[in-house]
């Protein structure tokens, strides 16, 4: 009974907190003491949601260890799903603590309120057991973000292009999950997840990749992470082995191609190091989904999700991006190479070769930001 109450509170909190933030922003207007109180309220509410979800992890472990049913109505309270939800809530906390962006006068609501609702929808996508319900949640989050946030000049076109790709991917994934043929089901689900996650070939042209757009990068990255975590849940508890094998094969191939594309971009394009490192992490997470390492997926995505809101910061804020992106990429790459080498040594060698163009830019990533920060503080 206590586990059910805690799960309900952790799932309902983002929607309640977002409503409170939206209401207070409407009353605060511009400037003043009330606006200053509201700027402190959103981070505090996001921390409460993170704490509630963290407390839900021991409950999920206890249910699994003692053999109790993790099925709570339409929900599946598995430890892997709760851990993925904690990662998404951590990204929301980072988003709320990051320096705020300038509000658009045409925005329907404050930018502080919408991430609460989209995070709540994506967490529901991890918890719901029905494929139709999961697809609806994965599709509702970008729809809400595009309608409420992408109102500025040039933002609407990028947002609607991202939404069109997500709709196509969600429909493909849902068709695959409901298809009776196991092989066709795995392939369609894999193609759909590739589109929703922004994997290859969606990451080829820079303008069609929301991970490289400063306006949509936060919401797009959170959606891609939720889709990959959902994919890891599918591989952890597959409906059939044939479908799981086809799905895993596509995710591994798409992950390799995404890593190779982002590595070349790191080597060639000098001004997109943080965005390209994010794409490398997305590709590595897809490979982790394919080999069935759900916890490794969360570990790969944790750094980029925390660093995303700080990616456009200047001066002192850049060292956070360097630490949260550069170090996790090195660590998780070594882990994935070790796992792949134990299963398929040749595939592990191919991954090392695909990452070869990125080693020099990544190794220069931390020292460059450290030197720049030191010069600014000394001056």
**How far apart are the termini?**
59 Å
Major beta sheet, strand line-up: 1-2
Shape: globular
| Whole-number total of structural domains | 1
Strand content: under 5%
- Note the run of SSEs as H and E: HHEEHHHHHHHHHHH
Helix content: over 70%
Radius of gyration: 20 Å
Backbone structural class: mainly alpha
Number of strands: 2
Whole-number average pLDDT? 75
Tally of contiguous helical segments: 13
Can you walk through the features of this model?
With 379 residues, the chain is mostly helical. The chain has one domain (2-378). The protein contains 13 helices and 2 strands. The chain has a two-stranded antiparallel sheet. A hairpin with a 2-residue loop joins strand 1 (71-72) and strand 2. It is globular, with a radius of gyration of 20 Å. Mean pLDDT is 75; it is low at 27-37 and 368-379.
Give a quick set of tags describing it.
2 strands, transmembrane, mainly alpha, membrane, transmembrane helix, 1% strand, 13 helices
Compact summary:
The chain has 379 residues and is an all-alpha fold. The chain is built from 13 helices and two strands.
Detail the topology: elements first, then pairings:
Blueprint: H1 2-28, H2 32-65, E1 71-72, E2 75-76, H3 79-97, H4 114-127, H5 131-149, H6 155-178, H7 182-197, H8 217-236, H9 241-268, H10 273-290, H11 294-307, H12 318-343, H13 345-378
Antiparallel strand pairs: 1-2
């Amino acid at each position: 009974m206590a586990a059910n109450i805690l799960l309900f509170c952790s799932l309902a909190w983002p929607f309640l907190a977002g409503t409170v933030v939206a209401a207070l922003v409407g009353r605060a207007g511009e400037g003043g003491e009330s606006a200053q109180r509201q700027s402190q309220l959103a981070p505090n509410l996001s921390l409460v949601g993170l704490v509630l979800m963290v407390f839900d992890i021991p409950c999920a472990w206890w249910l699994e260890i003692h053999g109790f049913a993790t099925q709570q109505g339409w929900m599946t309270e598995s430890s892997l799903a709760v851990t993925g939800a904690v990662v998404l809530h951590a990204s929301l906390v980072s988003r709320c603590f990051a320096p705020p962006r300038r509000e658009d006068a045409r925005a329907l609501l404050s930018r502080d309120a919408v991430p609460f609702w989209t995070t709540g929808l994506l967490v529901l996508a991890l918890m719901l057991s029905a494929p139709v319900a999961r697809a609806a949640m994965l599709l509702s989050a970008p729809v809400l973000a595009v309608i409420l946030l992408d109102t500025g000049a040039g933002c609407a076109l990028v947002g609607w292009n991202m939404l069109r790709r997500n709709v196509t991917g969600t429909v493909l994934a849902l068709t695959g999950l409901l298809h009776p043929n196991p092989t066709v089901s795995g392939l369609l689900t894999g193609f759909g997840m590739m589109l929703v996650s922004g994997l290859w070939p969606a990451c080829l042209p820079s303008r069609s990749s929301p991970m490289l757009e400063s306006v949509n990068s936060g919401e797009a990255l959170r959606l891609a992470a939720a889709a990959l975590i959902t994919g890891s849940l599918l591989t952890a508890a597959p409906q059939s082995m044939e479908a799981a094998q086809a799905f895993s094969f596509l995710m591994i191939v798409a992950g390799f191609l995404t890593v190779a594309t982002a590595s070349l971009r790191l080597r060639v394009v000098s001004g997109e190091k943080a965005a390209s490192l994010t794409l490398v992490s997305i590709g590595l997470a897809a490979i982790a989904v394919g080999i069935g390492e759900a916890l490794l997926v969360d570990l790969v995505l944790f750094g980029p999700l925390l660093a995303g809101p700080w990616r456009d910061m200047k001066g002192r804020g850049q060292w956070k991006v360097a630490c949260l992106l550069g170090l996790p990429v090195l660590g998780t790459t070594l882990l994935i190479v070790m796992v792949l080498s134990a299963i398929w040594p040749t595939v592990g060698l191919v991954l090392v070769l695909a990452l070869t163009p990125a080693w020099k830019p990544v190794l220069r990533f931390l020292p460059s930001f450290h030197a720049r920060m030191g010069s600014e503080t000394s001056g």
